[in-house]
Amino acid sequence: MKNSIIKICSESIHPGESVTLAMPLPQLFSCAPLYMPIKVIHGKKSGPTLLIIAAMHGNELNGTQIINRLLNSPSLKKLAGTLIAIPVLNVQGLMNRARTLPGGISLDTCFPGNENGTNSARLAHLFNTEIFSKADYCIDLQTGALNCSNFPQLFINFKDEKAKLLANAFNAPVVLDTVATEGSLRSLAEEKNIHYIKYEAGEAMRFDEETIKIGLQGILNTMRYLEMLPEKQLKSNKSRKSFFTDQYVWIHSEASGVSYSKVELG
């Protein structure tokens, strides 16, 4: 079935079109203009709308590189449905090489936002109304904190059976069952019935080639599962299977010092 025209940020996008948009962001006191980069690939055939976002926290770079490579993938020429990709969600954070927005506020605590609220609340509201509300599925690409490299893992709600199927298709090494925190994008996704998975891998301010490759392949796997891309002709080697668990613990050092690990991640 042929796709229909969609409208994003007041722009009409026709089937078969690929467009790059720059969404004006709420102004700071300096009145300096800022824009959020948005790439939309609208397939000729109808299908679901997949939103992929990176740099929710401004110093997370792996996801931005994953999206850059995805957009250069020749597979997208056969796309069904719509792909909306945002390589940098927290533009101000990236400019300042900071995890948070100005004022130390984490963007992932501000949803659904407020049209007349603080700068961060207005940013969350703008993203919610103009972009997020149009998605059927969302993949959020994040990393660990500074000097903390995370093993590639997915965070989902095990009660969302569709999210579990998406996670299985993505095929990250570990899948964790976690509760959405109030004000997070994931909590908003649950309200809007948007199936949401978060891929967290590597560390802030660093490119990690292995986690980038796993993330890129995971997105392509997920898009094939959603029938947005045709199945591969060659049999995929799925020797690694995701480990699903609802039990996990973070272990922190009891003392300060320098750590040297003799065990690789995983």
Mind explaining what this structure looks like?
This protein is of the alpha/beta class. Helices cover 23% and strands 25% of the residues. It has six helices and eleven strands. The chain has helices spanning 62-71, 91-95, 119-130, 161-170, 185-192, 209-225; strands spanning 6-8, 11-13, 18-24, 35-42, 45-54, 80-86, 137-142, 150-156, 174-177, 195-202, 243-245. The strands form two sheets. Strands 3-4-6-5-7-10-8-9-11 form a nine-stranded mixed beta sheet, sandwiched between helices. Helix 4 (161-170) links the parallel strand 8 (150-156) and strand 9 (174-177). Helix 1 crosses helix 6 and helix 4 packs across helix 6. The radius of gyration is 18 Å and the shape is globular. The mean pLDDT is 93.
With strands numbered from the N-terminus, the spatial order across the biggest sheet is: 3-4-6-5-7-10-8-9-11
Distinct helical segment count: 6
How far apart are the first and last residues' alpha carbons, in Å?
44 Å
Helix/sheet category = alpha/beta
Classify the helix fraction into a percent range.
Answer: 10-25%
Count of individual beta strands: 11
Please describe the biggest sheet, giving its number of strands, its sense, and whether it closes into a barrel: 9 strands, mixed
Radius of gyration: 18 Å
Low-confidence stretches: none
Shape: globular
Strand residue content: 15-25%
Order of helices and strands: EEEEEHEHHEEHEHEHE
- Average pLDDT, rounded to a whole number, is 93
Q: How would you briefly describe this protein structure?
A:
The chain has 266 residues and is an alpha/beta fold.
